[in-house]
Amino acid sequence: MSLDSTILVLGGTGTVGSRVVARLRDAGRDVRAVSRHTSPRFDWADPGTWEGVLAGVPVMFVLLPDQTAMPEAFLPAALRAGVRRVVLHSDRGLEVMGLDHLRKAEQDVRDSGAEWTIVRPDWFHQDFETFFRQPVVDGRLCVPVGDAAQGFIDADDIAAVEVAALTGDDLLGELVEVTGPRALSFGAAVAEIGAATGREITFDGTPGAYRETMRADGLPDEVIEALISGFGRLAARGDTKPTGVVEQILKRPGRDFTDYVADAAARDVWSRAR
Ligand SMILES: NC(=O)c1ccc[n+]([C@@H]2O[C@H](COP(=O)([O-])OP(=O)(O)OC[C@H]3O[C@@H](n4cnc5c(N)ncnc54)[C@H](OP(=O)(O)O)[C@@H]3O)[C@@H](O)[C@H]2O)c1
């Protein structure tokens, strides 16, 4: 791909996508970052928005929002429009959590005829400032994975690996499973946040506590039970071992959770009034 080719970033305004965009722009690349709130607008649910964003881009980063399947017609439309390389942001929990929509997206990308790389990240550090932020602020986080160590990874490192796949040839045809440099349990993660912020934050890794909090949030029972079985399989997988892939690809250490927590605390991420 030539250095002045435009790179399309789907989901370019979210946690990972915005970091992919920033890194590409810092490297002087031409980027088209799109979502439902950009101009041009891109909506997975509205095929009328696809053609305009796909025109003239040989390289495409695909990030599917949670629970969103890639429509059958999308990749054929992308290839017709001239896309030749696809980097798919997937999920390391795909098998255990039964994320069939991502399994299908991975298969479709492999079968598309385009050059491809699939990146499967573990939990993001930044989850503690998105969907886990409120429980952390309230002082009690419940995720039914017991004390199994997880491979928390920084979204900046995920983006750096994805940018390497978008701009170089070394990762073509590879499925890369990325974790942070040190696995730690949710209990240990929450304890680090507590120490950095001077707050008391407890962690409960039992299904009972999770069921109770999710019911209080109004989630339907069948959804809660499906999540509990997925998390149960994740717990049964046991402690995650860091894959070391970030370090191999980026030739530098991945960002440690402690460093993330210090930075997030300095940004007042967990202050109640934010
Ligand atoms: N969180 C984790 O620990 C974790 C771990 C591994 C893998 N993952 C995977 O990572 C992905 C989520 O990444 P993220 O946290 O970076 O996402 P995110 O912050 O929620 O961002 C989602 C992006 O998609 C856009 N979007 C949402 N709905 C859309 C629609 N209908 N059409 C077009 N664009 C839409 C959003 O912008 P607009 O709202 O403006 O449209 C935003 O740019 C999921 O596939 C998840 O399975 C997550």
Short summary:
The chain is of the alpha/beta class and 274 residues long. It has helices at 15-26, 50-54, 74-81, 94-97, 100-111, 133-138, 155-167, 186-197, 207-216, 221-236, 245-250, 257-266, and strands at residues 7-10, 31-34, 59-63, 85-89, 115-121, 140-142, 174-178, 202-204. Helix 3 (74-81) links the parallel strand 3 (59-63) and strand 4 (85-89).
Tell me what the structure shows.
The chain contains twelve helices and eight strands. With 274 residues, the chain is α/β, with parallel strands linked by helices. The chain has a domain at 7-121: Rossmann fold. Strands 2-1-3-4-5-7 form a six-stranded parallel beta sheet, sandwiched between helices. The chain has a two-stranded parallel ribbon with strand order 6-8. Helix 3 links the parallel strand 3 (59-63) and strand 4. Bound molecules: NADP nicotinamide-adenine-dinucleotide phosphate.
- The CATH superfamily of the domain at 7-121 turns out to be NAD(P)-binding Rossmann-like Domain
The computed structural class is alpha/beta
What strand order characterises the main sheet? 2-1-3-4-5-7
Instruction: Report the mean per-residue pLDDT as an integer.
Output: 96
